[in-house]
Give the backbone structure.
Amino acid sequence: MKLRTLTCISLVTIFATLTVLIPLSAQNQPEKRKGHVRYMVKELPTLGGTFGNGFGGPNNRGWVTGDANLAGDQTEHGFLWRDGVMTDLGTLGGLNSSVPTPVRNDRGLITGVAQTATVDPLGEFWGTSFVCTAVPCEGSQNLEIGFLWQDGVMAPLPTLGGNNGASLGANNRGQVVGVAETAIQDPNCAPPQVLDFAALIWGPKPGEIQVLPTFPGDSVAAATAINDRGDVVGSSGVCAFPPSFAFSVHAVLWRHGRVMDLGNLGGNMLNVAFAINNRGQVVGQSALSGNTFTHAFLWQDGVMTDLGTLPGDSISMATDINKKGQVVGNSCDINFNCRTFLWENGVMTDLSTLIPPGSPQLTFAGGINDRGEIAGSAFDQTTGASPAFLAVPCDERHAKDKECQGRAQDPVAIRRPHVVLPENVREQLRKRLRFGGGSH
């Protein structure tokens, strides 16, 4: 059966193909754009290490979440940056935690993944999801489960009878979505995965759990985001190591408990919907024909549109979309030298061309809020560090900010060279982009 054969494709093979072949598509967008709003960039502090990642994005209150390395760069913890103060969210007894995807809650609820002190008895190693300078982080053999954090308290979320899980999104109604293992040992899973897993909604009432159906013919699913209307997006496919999304045959939308295939750009794996706004617009990544490259997509009104890549790149993914339809994501060349993009009104722009000279290279976009503020990770060529960043548009809302004065509009984008990143940074980006072994 065609779906079953996908479980035999190793993630190593996928990455080997990506690094050998050259781009076959010329679907690139123009890099320059006249009259574009400029951005100021704030580098966020770390938790003692040299890497920080604003993967949780900024919510509409300007809170930035993500993860940052601790001193020594061997472990990472989830963080909250609020009003200039960095807070370590801690763990659930293990060494690592993270807020790996955009948080759509403006009421102080943060959701993410954290390790416990228990070593995975089945050797599945979901803990390899945590990526430090030494990829993966120390303690990768421990179990990983979803958490809720509010008012300084981290609480674990239950699985479906299995060992591992992850909470990946929340809305303003207090509903949380993610993935959790069941107790079913599936011989068709691709090693090291042993147990099946399902997409689910926790809450909004304490203890409330709703399991979402897989697409017909699939065996597993994962939910990545939920809007305030209760629409959920994610992926559905065959049983493989979940953080890589190689198992993802279908990018899907769950509405009123029913699952819908959003289509694809020609490939039948690595298809994932990562975000949905309250207008029902969905963004994510889809493999092209041959499953060699992925491109960012925008889905609306039943149509999936290929957003392409920045000039010279081969791979892209869209990570978030706000209520205005602004899309952020990442565009990379064949060697995972990655850049952050902003897509709006049909044009993809390298965000690093819209920030002040001397700013770090913006390498990964985590999320964008409704005010147009963008968070992610960067690379500072002068120090070699990779801090989390918050990019703030110098528009009417932010005109009084000191850094924005005199920068509201410039006639053209600033030309910047395509930065060749150090090998350790490229390896982190490859993992963060869900290729070859996987990570959050």
Notes: The chain has one domain: 30-432.
